[in-house]
Inverse folding.
């Protein structure tokens, strides 16, 4: 679709203001059109397609009925049914010829384990003073909706990273399996960088709750004990309203969800809340449609639930991490437009464009490339530092201590085992009254730097260092390093370490590890970078978010053209309009309401009982 | 040599921030701290200030006493020996812990400045307790010592504030003159240093436990400057110093060029600071203790994260905008009525030909009234009815530009629209910002 004239004007305006100063130094009235201009420019030059032979994809959907989301994400675009479906390739945000994976010796230069130890390892927990641990559970909940590279490739020789002198890692070499590149290559892929497939749907369709295939969707709607599909349209929950358990090859038993990899209690809380929310939506829809069958109710509730999740992420989670007027205006503008929330509620969508009334309800647009999650987006969302190492679980009534756990004590099967000792409301309260970690150097969770996992194969338990893996995966998959990444997004790259960060200690440490600032890894650079005022992440990350946050909505017809009462039902649209995470928690955990009643945002640290 | 400022009868002063020069001047026998109060006007004012502020009952405090003062030399040596011993022996647990807790931001910790003053005071009096009053006295003394405002100085002296501050501080250190200087003047350098240490722990910084020595160097803050006066007996010199010339050694600036502690403490000179070992040892002890402390448990988030405060602020900003807009709309309404009722007068006021313009002015008046009416919804709820407000602000700039081009008496209308456009832009921006910061 041709770029609207006003977007060209905004892009030109942004270029002009960038010559004078960064967007966050301008007053609101200048900063907003500047950010919009950046987005317009990125929509044109930072979207690249890798799906050269889509015929290899076999959609499970059929496009009918068209007002339902297909389980595998197919037929969102009726003309390109494969777009965004589970199994489609990840796209790129930088030119394809810049995405060749690094090879040895560059691939291991500097040694990623060395970087993990000297730049990323947590010395002591650095909290964000005002954000709680629900933030962490939420973002992983989102990432599981959008993407997964699936299991690694056991058939290729693994990475063998030399362990530096004095390192306490067991063994002289760290073994890391390689990413599984797409094997379904065609002649069109000749001479091109390796591509990777997304095992989940790319869409913002709550596939983490509902699954990315028909089989998984049926599983979450059925009682695992009997295999019986629920006919009332609801997700199956246990009698105590917790998620059911399924047998798991590695963990014995794990809570059943659409996507339950890398499970821990923060994720469990989000899945539980939104499984209950789905069922609440079904109950609401049944009032207006008492004769509707379970399948119809399920599909409509899924639409509504997914939209509510998208709205919460756009208007609550992201603004919590962008605690500045410009950031908030931008994110709220994505959903409600320039005219704002109340106008949006009161009136129909103004025109077909997104500027005045927001993206939901506007015209669908893929811009420069078919929709797909991108490798660069994945790289920017490596936010492990948000996670604390230590969890204290307390009663919401009086803040009395119940138990303390480290991260392994709340992950995998230990997540649902925890509920035997700590009621759900108390788990929610405890996470909400504990600080999230800051996205800075020296704050990577210790538990994730020595995580014992059973991998298949090898069968023996092995330890992994996620910090090393984070660095390695970006290099492996051809995500440009920090300076090159910034240039691809039209940002100035630092020429020296002093320009990268004004923290004097970090400058010295970076110099000790990297021979030149050009070699700084993307993850390290974004953690070291000075951030805009009120922001919990870097400006580099913000640029990618600006592009992709809008794209997730704009490209999806269920969030654009088909975001209508006809598709969602009037009650469904109203549900999305009226509800937020505050009301979701109030509905499913009413007893903790007083702890967040006074707060602007439930991702801010709740008040402790008795305080 | 440093910067010379010499105007006969007015000022004779040299300033230097060159570390090499400072070391040379510090050992120069012809530069002393007699402060005789002679020479050009500014010199007298400055030395008089030193003699009055940095003194107790007319006797200069040891750090500003002359070289030849035997009592000064004896007290200095004794104090140094005592402080060196204290530095080696370690500090009282609660002294260090109080400062460390203040650095780490514990809500129930004493204020950083109080904790630091108490630590300094206990080097002179074991029972020293810092209070609001003692800190206020220290602040006054420091301000009086550094202020170049003669009126303020006169006020402080004439109201007895300086004397009261000196007495209060001296009572608390059992009349130890070095203690008065320590708890009244030198303490501020320490507080500045610990404030830097606090910033090292503040989000999003990550303290490096191995960086102890670097932290000490970073938190060691030299005094702003020290003063010397060329003695009357000064013989001929190769430099510009004459008898009575004041020499200002800018230690703080020199420290930027040479971070050695010898510069800050003027080590090796007759006037070296007796706390040269004590201060770094205290900083290191506080750093080590601060690292051991668990971070304060999560505190309640402040008002900026709460609905009541932020919504009150949003309401207030909205009311300000509505007031300005209401005033503007009222004036426009009045203007519209005037245009309708007295178009000929209006034409003449603008320098228009009444016969041809009167009807247009009437129409103009009607349109103004319509504009005000259309604006009503935007005035009632400016945040959620944004369109008329945004268009209205942009429109005012446009009409102001148009009136500017028309010149003549239209310039008054340009001024009217331009001023209101600017005022409304500011107020609306504030209102929108406050509204945004009251939402999730």
């Amino acid at each position: 679709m041709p770029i609207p004239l006003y977007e060209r004007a905004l892009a030109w305006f942004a270029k002009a203001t960038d010559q004078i100063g960064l967007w966050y130094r301008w007053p609101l009235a200048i900063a907003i059109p500047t950010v919009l201009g950046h987005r317009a420019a990125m929509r044109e030059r930072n979207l690249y397609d890798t799906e050269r032979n889509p015929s290899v994809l076999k959609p499970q959907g059929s496009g009918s009925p068209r007002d339902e989301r297909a389980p595998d994400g197919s037929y969102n675009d009726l003309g390109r049914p494969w777009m965004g479906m589970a199994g489609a390739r990840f796209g790129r945000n930088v030119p394809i010829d810049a995405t060749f994976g690094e090879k040895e010796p560059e691939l291991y230069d500097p040694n990623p384990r060395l970087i993990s130890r000297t730049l990323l390892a947590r010395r002591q927990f650095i909290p964000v003073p005002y954000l709680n641990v629900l933030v962490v559970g939420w973002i992983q909940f989102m990432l599981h909706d959008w993407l997964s590279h699936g299991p690694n490739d056991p058939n290729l020789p693994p990475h063998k990273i030399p362990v530096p002198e004095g390192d306490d890692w067991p063994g002289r070499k760290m073994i890391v399996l390689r990413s599984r590149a797409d094997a379904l290559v065609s002649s069109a892929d000749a001479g091109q960088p390796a591509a990777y497939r997304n095992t989940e749907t790319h869409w913002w369709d709550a596939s983490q709750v509902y699954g990315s295939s028909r089989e998984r969707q049926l599983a979450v709607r059925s009682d695992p004990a009997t295999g019986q599909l629920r006919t009332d349209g609801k997700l199956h929950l246990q009698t105590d309203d917790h998620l059911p358990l399924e047998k798991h090859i590695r963990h014995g038993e794990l809570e059943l969800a659409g996507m339950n990899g890398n499970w821990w209690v923060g994720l469990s809380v989000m899945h539980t809340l939104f499984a209950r929310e789905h069922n609440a939506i079904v109950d609401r829809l049944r009032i207006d449609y008492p004769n509707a069958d379970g399948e119809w109710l399920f599909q409509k509730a899924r639409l509504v639930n997914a939209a509510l999740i998208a709205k919460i992420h756009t208007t609550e989670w992201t603004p919590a991490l962008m605690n500045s007027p410009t950031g908030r205006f931008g994110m709220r503008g994505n959903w409600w437009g320039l005219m704002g929330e109340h106008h949006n509620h009161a009136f129909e969508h103004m025109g077909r464009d997104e500027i005045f009334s927001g993206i939901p309800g506007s015209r669908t647009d893929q811009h420069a490339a078919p929709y797909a999650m991108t490798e660069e987006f994945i790289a920017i969302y490596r936010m492990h530092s948000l996670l604390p190492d230590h969890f204290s679980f307390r009663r919401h009534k009086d803040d009395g201590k119940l138990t303390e756990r480290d991260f392994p004590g709340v992950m995998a099967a230990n997540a649902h085992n925890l509920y035997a000792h700590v009621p759900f409301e108390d788990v929610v309260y405890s996470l909400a009254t504990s600080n999230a970690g800051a996205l800075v150097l020296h704050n990577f969770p210790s538990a994730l730097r020595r995580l014992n996992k059973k991998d298949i194969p090898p069968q023996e338990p092995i330890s992994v260092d996620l910090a090393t893996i984070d660095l390695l995966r970006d290099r492996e998959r051809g995500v440009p390093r920090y300076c090159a990444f910034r240039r691809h997004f039209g940002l100035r790259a630092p020429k020296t370490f002093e320009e990268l960060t004004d923290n004097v200690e970090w400058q010295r440490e970076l110099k000790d590890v990297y021979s030149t600032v050009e070699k700084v890894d993307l993850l390290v650079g974004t953690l070291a970078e000075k951030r805009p005022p009120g922001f919990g992440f870097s400006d580099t990350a913000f640029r990618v978010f600006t592009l992709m946050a809008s794209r997730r909505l704009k490209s999806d017809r269920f969030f654009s053209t088909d975001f209508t009462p006809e598709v969602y039902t009037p009650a469904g649209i109203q549900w999305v309009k009226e509800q937020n995470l505050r009301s979701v928690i109030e509905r499913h955990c009413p007893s903790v309401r007083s702890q967040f009643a006074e707060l602007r945002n439930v991702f801010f640290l709740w008040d402790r009982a008795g305080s | 040599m440093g910067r010379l400022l010499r105007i006969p009868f007015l000022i004779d002063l040299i300033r230097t921030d060159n570390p090499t020069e400072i070391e040379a001047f510090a050992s120069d026998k012809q530069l002393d701290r007699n402060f005789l109060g002679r020479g050009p006007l500014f010199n007298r004012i400055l030395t008089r200030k030193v003699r009055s502020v940095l003194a107790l009952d007319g006797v200069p405090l040891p750090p500003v006493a002359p070289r030849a003062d035997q009592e000064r030399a004896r007290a200095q040596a004794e104090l140094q020996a005592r402080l060196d011993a204290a530095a080696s022996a370690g500090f009282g647990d609660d002294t260090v812990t109080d400062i460390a807790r203040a650095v780490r931001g514990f809500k129930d910790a004493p204020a950083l400045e109080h904790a630091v003053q108490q630590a300094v005071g206990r080097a002179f009096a074991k029972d020293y307790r810092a209070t609001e009053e003692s800190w206020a006295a220290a602040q006054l003394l420091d301000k009086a010592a550094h202020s170049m405002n003669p009126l303020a100085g006169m006020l402080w002296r004439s109201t007895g504030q300086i004397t009261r501050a000196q007495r209060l501080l001296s009572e608390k250190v059992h009349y130890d003159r070095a203690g008065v200087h320590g708890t009244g003047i030198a303490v501020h350098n320490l507080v500045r240093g610990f404030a830097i240490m606090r910033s090292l722990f503040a989000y999003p910084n990550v303290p490096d436990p191995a960086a102890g020595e670097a932290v000490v160097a970073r938190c060691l803050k030299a005094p702003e400057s020290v003063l010397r006066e060329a003695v009357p007996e000064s013989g001929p010199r190769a430099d510009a110093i004459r008898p009575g010339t004041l020499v200002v050694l800018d230690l703080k600036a020199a420290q930027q060029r040479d971070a050695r502690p010898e510069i800050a403490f003027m080590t090796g000179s007759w006037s070296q600071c007796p706390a040269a070992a004590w201060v770094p040892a205290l900083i290191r002890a506080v750093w080590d203790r601060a690292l051991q402390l668990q971070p304060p448990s999560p505190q309640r988030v402040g008002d900026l994260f709460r609905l009541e405060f932020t919504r009150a602020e949003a309401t207030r900003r909205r009311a300000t905008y509505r007031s300005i807009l209401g005033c503007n709309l009222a004036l426009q309404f009045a203007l519209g009525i005037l245009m309708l009722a007295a178009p000929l007068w209006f034409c003449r006021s603008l320098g228009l030909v009444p016969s041809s313009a009167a009807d247009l002015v009437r129409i103009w008046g009607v349109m103004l009234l319509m504009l005000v009416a259309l604006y009503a919804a935007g005035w009632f709820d400016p945040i959620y009815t944004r369109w008329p407000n945004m268009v209205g602000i942009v429109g005012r700039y446009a009409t102001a530009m148009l009136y500017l081009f028309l010149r003549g008496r239209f310039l008054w209308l340009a001024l009217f629209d331009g001023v209101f456009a600017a005022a409304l832009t500011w107020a609306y921006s504030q209102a929108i910002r406050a509204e945004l910061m009251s939402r999730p």
About this structure: The mean pLDDT of chain B is 90. The radius of gyration of chain B is 33 Å. The first strand of chain B starts at residue 3 and ends at 7.
